[in-house]
Amino acid sequence: MLRRQVELVVRDDRAQVTQRVAIARELPGEGNNFILGGGSTVAVALASVALELNMIYATNSATATAFTHEGFNRNVFRLNPNGWSLYSVSGRAVAERFPQVLRWGAILPDYSAGHDNARAFLRAVQKYHPKSASKDFALLKPVAVGMAQTDFRPRSTRC
Description:
This protein has helices spanning 17-26, 40-53, 65-68, 83-97, 112-128, and strands at 34-36, 56-59, 76-78, 103-104, 107-109, 138-139, 143-145. It is α/β, with parallel strands linked by helices. Helix 1 packs parallel to helix 2 (40-53) and helix 4 (83-97) runs parallel beside helix 5.
């Protein structure tokens, strides 16, 4: 490990692509070689600047996939958590925070990602709940609802 200090340098680009690019061009002269952030509107511009100036650019923009796959740019990284990581950590957090809750379920949107996310959540609850071996502990079958459904009460009577 290098154990180097990290300093956060914040600049206001006023949500302007040209301003963001100008700021990115100033950073290497100040000893900075890492850019974080910037949505789809600036991802294309910052990706080319990062390559030109040999900086690392990390973004959550879906547009960055073009630079991490088909138009590979070694200076661009897409930082997006996936459903498994988000729902697993959520399941662990609530299982550890609420050990008195012994019946767990999920209401999920009825599409593939919804089912995957509920499965990750419930697996984590079972793994990390301190009383998961108890005969009173239960994981209920998830309740799948339509994407446009806004009232879950009729479907949640099993919980």
